[in-house]
Automatic annotation (TrEMBL):
This is Intraflagellar transport 88 homolog. It comes from the Eukaryota. Residues 744-754 have a biased composition (Polar residues). Gene3D superfamilies: Tetratricopeptide repeat domain. InterPro entries: Sel1-like, TPR-like_helical_dom_sf, TPR_rpt. One of its GO terms (molecular function) is kinesin binding. Residues 107-132, 719-821 are annotated as: Disordered. Transmembrane segments: none annotated. Residues 806-821 have a biased composition (Acidic residues). Residues 794-805 have a biased composition (Basic and acidic residues). TPR repeats lie at residues 231-264, 270-303, 483-516, 517-550, 551-584, 585-618, 619-652. Pfam families: TPR_12 (PF13424), TPR_16 (PF13432), TPR_8 (PF13181). One of its GO terms (cellular component) is non-motile cilium.
Amino acid sequence: MENVHLAVEEDYLYSGYNDFNPTFDSEEFENDVGFQQAVRTSYGRRPPIGGKFPGTAIGARPLFSSSGSRMPLASSMGRPLTGAVQDGAARPMSAVRAAGYTSSLTRGSTFDPLGQSRGPAPPLETKNEDTPEEKIKLLEKKLNNLIEESCMAQSTGNLQLALDKAKEADRKERALVKQKEQLGSVDHINLDLTYSVLLNLANQYENNEMYPEALNSYQFIVKNKMFNNAGRLKVNMANIYYKQKNYHKAIKFYRMALDQISNAHKDMRIKIKQNIGVVFLDMGQYSDAIASFEDIMSETPNIRTGFNLILCYYAVGDREKMKKAFQKLISVPLCINDEDKYIPPNDDTSSNMVIEAIKNDQLYQMERDLRAQAEKYIMTAAKLIGPATETSFASESDWCVDTVKNSQYVQLANDLEFHKAMACLRQKDHNQAKEILKTFEKKDSRVKSAAATNLSFIYFQEKDFNQADKYADLAMNADRYNPAALTNKGNTLFVKQDYEKAAEFYKEALRNDSSCTESLHNLGLTYKRLNHLEEALDCFLKLHAILKNSDQVMYQLAELYEQLGDRQQATKWLMQVITVTPTDPHVLAKLGKLHNDEGDKSQAFQYYSESFRLFPCKIDVIEWLGVYYIESQFFEKAIQYFERATLIQPTQVKWQLIVASCYRKSGNYQKALETYKGIHRKFPENVECLRFLVRLSTDMGLKEVQEYATKLKKAEKMKEIREEKVKSGQGNTVGGRREGSGGSADSNHSSGSNRGERLSAKMRALPVSNDPYEANSPKELDASYMDPLGPQMERPKTGAKKHVDDDDFGDEELGDDLLPE
């Protein structure tokens, strides 16, 4: 029991919460005279006179509590100041009302700390937009919107809309200034807004090539002293004068702008100096341009200025300074980071993702464009230095290559060597070109493929198809995706008449590069040779969509439609060819043939006549026109065309026989007899000529009748002997071939005689007379002549593209796109 202790009764945990502080009793406020007086007046704001209430720094008034006893009031305002000093120490701030605890809570009111029972808040006061200040603000906002819309329209290329918006902004800005003047607030004019409106208007005038209006707008801004730095706009005015080719004023305004720009703006001054040099260059004042460009290169060298300096030295013929300027040009730093930063350093996935993200961003594209522009200037400068610096082209090219190899543009050395090979090719130095191109066989695959492609092209033009095939294979092995190499390979198979394989290589070239027009053209020719006319037509229609003004493509389409039997479409395409090349006699003759086949003789005569006027040596055109006049009974006109045919083909006796017959039909028998005698002297064994001589001599009663009759019998007998030899030789194939060749030699000597015999057969078939010139159709007079322009239209194109002299290589081209990039 000694260790047992009874628990002492502890205080109740929630004791004291029922005690009521009469200070917070608000029911007795109505009976409190001091409180009511304080509410009605500012009396409660004064500190009371009397004793201090414990716990506050303010005197209290006695107040009756709810139990009837009087209690002192903490303040005349009804609330104790909790932040007052009590007994010299600061009390902490309480949060009674902030927490929602008020005296009314104890009387049964609901807990509402957010005041939701009071209803929605009253609406905000609306601004009165009718005031002048609000109207001015709205106008300024509209002006800014118009300027923005004008700039956006300009960026999208809608220059007229941009100008209209700028004019509207200018009108509203003037109205805004007048409104401010009327209100007397001139000092509050927004000069920045006015400057923006005027500058945008001037820019839009300039973009729309309304130069006088643009100059007036710029002049108004420049003369206004309230605009700071407006003198810079004289550069814009100088640019307009330059576009108007008013070079003297352009230089004047450039120099005025240069004087108004401080040395702190170094880049701006350099650009203005560069513009001054360009204007002097266009004026032909090369010494002044050189001085300007040399000043820039001494301060802040750049690629474009260095290139312009080389152009000036080239114009004045200063070779040594050209070399020095070229060395300065290739030493200009590009300020481009190394491309190694785009190579992932390790297998870190996050790093690789970052590199892939920045690999094609705008910064990388800008760096790539800057490098490409620098390489273009350097290559062009090297090409200019070539013929100007040395008497030997080879030594000059070697100097340029060595200089570039020792610079930051090492990769351009191969391009310069390639350019040297192409220059040798243009100078018809094929051996030197081939030697240079063969040196690329040990280079990387891209350069090797390009060199082999051009070598294949050279050998193909020289008709060394074995070497062309060899280098085409080498180019494909180095780069299987080279469309030019595949095209050259197809060409070598095309000339070997292996059209199926050639078509496969052309198709592969098109799969690698769908814009390879050479492969598409040659594929169409291959299908044409394979008699796949629909596929060929599809190829040339696709090619026409790419090369809309190519007369060769349209001519091929016309031929294909003609072979398909659609003469109307063929005529349509030939008419399009005429619109592109109206002086092509071959196309005009083709149109004449199509109209003649359709039975439209008058239209055919028009095209044949135009073809003869442009090219009077085309034998089938001469033949058609001569026969047309014979059918029309204009023999004198026909004689002119057949005499021309005699001059073109003097060994063809048929033209001379036709001329003699025309004389006879026109009634000029004496001239006909003389013509027949001349034919007999040239072709004594011609049976047809002897028959007409016998007939004319008999009709005219000449003594030479018996002589011509004897010669006629001998000629007919010799003809029968030759025919018997030919018939007897048909049994023995080998012997027949040999005798046929011997007979052909004889017939070459008397080919005119055989043709004359065919004409005599036609003549005997006529019902009225023996004259062979009353033919019903010009087709009966068939000339064994093939126009050389025809096969040229079907020559396959080579895969290389850079233009070479037509006298040596025809219409093919070798392209810069095959040069190593």
